[in-house]
Design a protein that fits this description.
Length: 179
């Protein structure tokens, strides 16, 4: 099931995939300092859970996504990854948190399997950022050794740009969220 975090307990979203082990999403990240215009994952009321709480919640999940805002800066990330056993761990983070820094290479060193990179298409449009610039930023993250799954978020004003940006990011499969 899923629920809201209370007193530091993790928010969980369990899913059983056909023919696969359990996959789980745990909200560990708090609201970003500057939330994306089209954000659908930040929650200002979330309290970052303790590592022990997350470890208990994981159970037998083989695939874990740490999400909610910028999970790449959750203080429990390094201890969690040091304690994990046979789990693929993905981290949700906005493109702005992973570009132009050593964050991606740090995540690789910690053992993160993949970054689900949140790309706010509405903000890109308002800031006049070209698709080629976004592709270059994603490619730089990948050059640091981190696999990337783009999540394109957009409000109606930017809907017409989604197809072009998804095509520019190909062959990566982009998830699209319309808000």
């Amino acid at each position: 099931g899923s629920g809201h975090a209370e007193h530091g307990s993790p928010v969980l979203e369990d899913r059983k995939l056909e023919g696969a082990d359990t996959s789980m999403r745990i909200v560990v990240g708090m609201r970003c300092e500057v939330p994306c215009t089209s954000c659908t994952v930040c929650d200002g009321s979330t309290v970052g859970p303790a590592v022990d709480d997350v470890l208990r919640a994981l159970g037998d999940a083989a695939d874990v996504t740490l999400g909610g805002g910028d999970a790449s800066c959750w203080p429990g990330l390094a201890p969690l990854l040091a304690a994990r056993v046979r789990r693929a761990v993905k981290v949700e983070a906005p493109l702005t948190a992973l570009q132009g820094s050593n964050t991606a290479s740090r995540l690789v060193r910690l053992g993160v399997a993949e970054a689900i990179v949140l790309i706010d298409v509405t903000r890109l449009q308002s800031e006049r950022v070209h698709d080629e610039q976004v592709v270059a930023r994603v490619a730089e993250i990948e050059r640091q050794g981190l696999a990337v799954s783009p999540r394109l978020c957009a409000r109606p004003v930017a809907f017409e740009r989604l197809a072009a940006l998804a095509a520019a990011l190909a062959p990566r499969a982009s998830r699209v969220e319309l808000v």
